[in-house]
Amino acid sequence: MSAKFAVHFIPVLVVVASAAAAAAGGNGDGQFTYQGFATANLTLDGLAAVTANGLLALTNATYQAKAHAFHPAPLRFLGETAAAANASAAVARSFSTSFVFAIVSGYDGLSDHGLAFMVAPTANLSTANAGQYLGLLNATSGAASGGASILAVELDTIMNPEFRDISSNHVGVDVNSLVSMQAQPAGYYGDGDGAFRELRLNSRKPMQVWVDYDDEAKQINVTLSPVKVSKPKKPLISQAIDLSTVMAEEMYVGFSSATGVVFTHHYVLGWSFSFDGPAPPLDISKLPVLPRVGPKPRSKVLDIVLPLATALLVAAAVAAVFFAVWRRRRFAEVREDWEDEFGPHRFAYKDLFRATDGFKERNLLGVGGFGRVYRGVLPESNLEIAVKRVSHDSRQGIREFVAEVVSIGRLRHRNLVQLLGYCRRKDELLLVYDYMANGSLDKYLYERNSTTTLHWAERLWIIKGVASGLLYLHEDWEQVVIHRDIKASNVLLDSAMKGRLGDFGLARLYDHGTDPQTTHVVGTMGYLAPELVRTGKATPLTDVFAFGVFLLEVTCGRRPIETDNDNKRVVLVDWVLEHHRNGSIFGAADPRLMGKFDAEEVSLILKLGLMCSHPLPRARPSMRKVMQYLEHGRQPAPDLSPSYVSYSMMAIMQSEGFDSYVMSEPQSTMGINTVSVGASSMTILSEGR
Ligand SMILES: *[C@@H]1O[C@H](CO)[C@@H](O)[C@H](O)[C@H]1NC(C)=O
Ligand SMILES: *[C@@H]1O[C@H](CO)[C@@H](O)[C@H](O)[C@H]1NC(C)=O
Ligand SMILES: *[C@@H]1O[C@H](CO)[C@@H](O)[C@H](O)[C@H]1NC(C)=O
Ligand SMILES: *[C@@H]1O[C@H](CO)[C@@H](O)[C@H](O)[C@H]1NC(C)=O
Ligand SMILES: *[C@@H]1O[C@H](CO)[C@@H](O)[C@H](O)[C@H]1NC(C)=O
Ligand SMILES: *[C@@H]1O[C@H](CO)[C@@H](O)[C@H](O)[C@H]1NC(C)=O
């Protein structure tokens, strides 16, 4: 009853036990699977260790040492039935094994001795040698002792001539000797084309190996492939061998490795084994991960830095776009087709912006009726420039004006401030001039605390220079250019204290673009010729009038119109005339000269000034005539005709305002427009300083 019961249940128990063994990697029927070795119970010796994440690390950075890892229990390799019938005729069983390994060298491309899968009669390999012996054998072990030998599949990464190795990267089948029965260069045959593809064993990448023994064909096959490639159909090595003569009844299976002198890790990631059938497949995705190679912190940094850098890059790109748009707006210019012909005279706003440090206040040279003037240095040429920002709100006439600016740019005279070019923006025009190191003349004339009072010789030199410049404008250039705004503040002094006339023609900007029916009078109070006020028509002689006032201004050190202590307006021309009538014309000379001057020269200049500022245009000399007086300084001073009564009329005009004057001149032809429109439309621009 009990025997019957037992017979009935034995097969069930066997099935259960074998299933449990397989699952746990046990040894029930000699079949096992290790997806990583964390829970495995391997027998380790030497350097071998299992890492925390389940890698079997056969070697570490210890030199000339060996390592072994065995499946804990021995397996029965010889057929039981055959052994029972005739022990000497026992047949080795078919088996298959598969494992994934990686050789990771501290120096890429350079590696130590390799590793081997082995089937050994004993798990005690204490007498084996390290180094090229791979921990399998020693120098004297050779001849098989009693039939039980070591079968090994070596993955060798060093070429040892003593073992007749074929290369430093080969796979071999060894039986009790490190001289392989057969060795092949590491690689595999592609299933598709059958072509051989070489693999580098020490590439630091995991690779899979299959070892299959067929007891009927008496053949052992070794196949190698990268982990991403499934088992190739054609094995790398197919070697005829009858393992019946090699195997003992029970054999240990495992791995062996040894180090020499190069720091190398030999890892096994997973392993499966089976008798009489293919080895259970390994799930590559479940195998433990190899440690990172190379300096760890760097790769970690890369992990963090890469996404961060990407984010930064995107942010930078967005910022760059915003900046480009902002910059486009900030440096926006107005440029029209017709300006193409003026190309060379056109400056980029960006350059002017850079030159003046963004029109910073500290670069401001002065503020005038026409705009603000900034000092700057052109980025490329290092040329010092003065940039005048002139606002204009009328588009009308700008074309003519720019054409004029460009033609003015062609004027070349040592006593003119060179206009270098222009730039145009919305509602704004920028004129670029040579920089005049010593600023404007009026500063030297009127700053009472100025220690830089000009000597008479200097003043005369400046006067001659301005006269020469004005003559060039009026007569010596291809066109007649009327300055329209001659005055001390428009005379600039260069680094050599030479007088140069600036701002010529600029007054026309306010002439252009206004209602052509009315002509605005442009100029500065005190310098305006009577007929200019009346007719609004600028001529070379209206310039001469202003030049005359300028002569008196420089000689007397007084403004054209001053307010005296009794709050009464004093017109300079009248004041000098009075001195002249009283026979004391020298009394009009600037007291700061302290009498140090040539009396004849001062007399000449003052008389010339009066003559030029004559109220009647036809009584004024031309600039050429003026030049003659100046050049022959000692020739008799011009004789003043007795028509000076008219000066008082001008005095009335300039002291009591224009309204009464204009109204009292109904006979003037051009003046009618002005009168009909009324005084309110008349714009008198003055520098206001
Ligand atoms: C290598 O492994 C052996 C055995 O586990 C250990 O004693 C030795 O300290 C290890 N050496 C290094 C450098 O990790
Ligand atoms: C591991 O194997 C050894 C010997 O093979 C055995 O004594 C031990 O009990 C095993 N341990 C486990 C946890 O299986
Ligand atoms: C065992 O096999 C050998 C040869 O392989 C043979 O000589 C011998 O007779 C056999 N013995 C038995 C009991 O079959
Ligand atoms: C291994 O074999 C040697 C002799 O060859 C012996 O001294 C040693 O104790 C053995 N080791 C084990 C763990 O059995
Ligand atoms: C070499 O190994 C064999 C076993 O394979 C052992 O009998 C012999 O003593 C070893 N020789 C040395 C020098 O360790
Ligand atoms: C070994 O490879 C050969 C082809 O080279 C093949 O015919 C044979 O079936 C293979 N044996 C095993 C056990 O895979």
From TrEMBL:
Its keywords, alphabetically, are: ATP-binding, Cell membrane, Glycoprotein, Kinase, Lectin, Membrane, Nucleotide-binding, Receptor, Serine/threonine-protein kinase, Signal, Transferase, Transmembrane, Transmembrane helix
Question: Which cellular components does GO assign to this protein?
Answer: plasma membrane
Give the E.C. number(s): 2.7.11.1
CDD domains documented for this protein: lectin_legume_LecRK_Arcelin_ConA, STKc_IRAK
Q: Tell me the leader sequence span.
A: 1-25
Q: Which domain of life is it from?
A: Eukaryota
Q: Which reaction does it catalyse?
A: L-seryl-[protein] + ATP = O-phospho-L-seryl-[protein] + ADP + H(+); L-threonyl-[protein] + ATP = O-phospho-L-threonyl-[protein] + ADP + H(+)
Tell me the residue numbers annotated for binding ATP: 388
User: How does this protein lie in the membrane?
Assistant: Single-pass type I membrane protein
Pfam families (UniProt xref)? Lectin_legB, Pkinase
Q: Which InterPro entries match?
A: ConA-like_dom_sf, Kinase-like_dom_sf, L-type_Lectin-RKs, Legume_lectin_dom, Prot_kinase_dom, Protein_kinase_ATP_BS, Ser/Thr_kinase_AS
- Indicate where this protein resides in the cell: Cell membrane
Would you kindly state one Gene Ontology biological process term found in this protein's UniProt entry? negative regulation of response to salt stress
- Domain annotation Protein kinase: ranges: 359-635
Indicate yes or no for the key word Cell membrane.
yes
Q: Which family is it part of?
A: In the C-terminal section; belongs to the protein kinase superfamily. Ser/Thr protein kinase family.
Q: What is this protein called?
A: non-specific serine/threonine protein kinase
User: From which organism does this entry originate?
Assistant: Leersia perrieri
